[in-house]
Each structure stands twice: as C-alpha cells, then as structure tokens.
C-alpha cells in the first residue's frame, strides 16, 4: 500500500511519518483490499486545547474511507483516526465476505 504524507502548517517529522507508516502497514496486512492512503497532518493555532489534526483517506474498491481527529498530540490524533478507520473497515469487510 502506498502512503502519501502532507504536512500543513507544521514541520515534516520523519519519526511521525514512520509511526503512521507502521500503523497503516498493520491495517494493510489485515485488510488486503487497501490500495493507498493520503495522510494530512495539520496544526491549528487557534485551538489551544487541541490543535493537532490528523486526516487519513483510504483508497479501496468502492467509496473511499475518511477519518479525522483533533487531539493534544499528533500520536493521539493518529491513534484516534486509525481507530475510526478500523471501525469503517470492519463494516466494509462484511460486504466483501464470500458466503
């Protein structure tokens, strides 16, 4: 699965990119129908409580899946976003089951 990263209003972080890549590789191993992922890491200065935003869009057969979260740290935002995507993937996997 190919993963494209875009950092908006924040510095590029190799450690964060590696962390996200590892988490998405686990998803790709479990759900073999994933094609690619677009990851957007954003920083919002106006929101002092959170402001660390992670958007992930997964490309797969059928409609794309999208999840976003806004947390205190980027790691928490990534974990929450991937958790939301797992829930959506479980629903989508039911469609692809062969009876």
CATH level 1 class label: Alpha Beta
Based on CA atoms alone, the radius of gyration comes out at 14 Å
How many strands, which pairing sense, and closed or not: the largest β-sheet? 4 strands, mixed
Portion of residues in beta strands equals 25-35%
CATH topology: Double Stranded RNA Binding Domain
Number of helical regions: 2
Q: How many structurally independent domains? A: 1
Tell me the structural class: alpha+beta
Task: State the low-pLDDT regions, or none.
Answer: none
- Mean pLDDT, rounded to whole units? 91
Helix content: 40-55%
Succession of helices and strands: EHEEEH
| CATH homologous superfamily title | Ribosome hibernation promotion factor-like
By DSSP, the count of extended strands is 4
Which strand order do you get reading across the main beta sheet? 1-2-3-4
Shape: elongated
Instruction: Give me the CATH architecture, please.
Output: 2-Layer Sandwich
Rounded to the nearest angstrom, the distance between the terminal CA atoms is: 27 Å
What does this structure look like?
The structure is a single chain. This protein is of the alpha+beta class and 99 residues long. The protein has a single domain, classed as Ribosome hibernation promotion factor-like (Double Stranded RNA Binding Domain). It contains two helices and four strands, in the order βαβββα. It has helices spanning 14-30, 74-96, and strands spanning 2-8, 36-43, 52-59, 65-71. The chain has a four-stranded mixed β-sheet, with helices on one face. Strand 1, helix 1 and strand 2 (36-43) form a beta-alpha-beta unit. Helix 1 (14-30) packs parallel to helix 2 (74-96). The longest helix has 23 residues, at 74-96. The chain starts with a strand and ends with a helix. It comes from Winogradskyella ouciana. This is Ribosome-associated translation inhibitor RaiA. InterPro entries: RHF-like (IPR036567), RHF/RaiA (IPR003489).
């Amino acid at each position: 699965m190919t993963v494209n990263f875009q950092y908006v209003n924040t510095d590029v972080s190799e450690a964060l990119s590696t962390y996200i890549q590892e988490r998405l590789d686990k998803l790709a191993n479990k759900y073999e129908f994933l094609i690619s992922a677009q990851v957007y890491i954003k920083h919002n200065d106006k929101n002092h409580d959170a402001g660390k935003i992670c958007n992930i869009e997964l490309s797969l057969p059928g409609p794309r899946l999208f999840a976003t979260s806004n947390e205190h740290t980027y790691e928490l935002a990534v974990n929450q976003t991937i958790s939301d995507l797992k829930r959506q993937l479980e629903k989508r996997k039911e469609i692809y089951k062969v009876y």
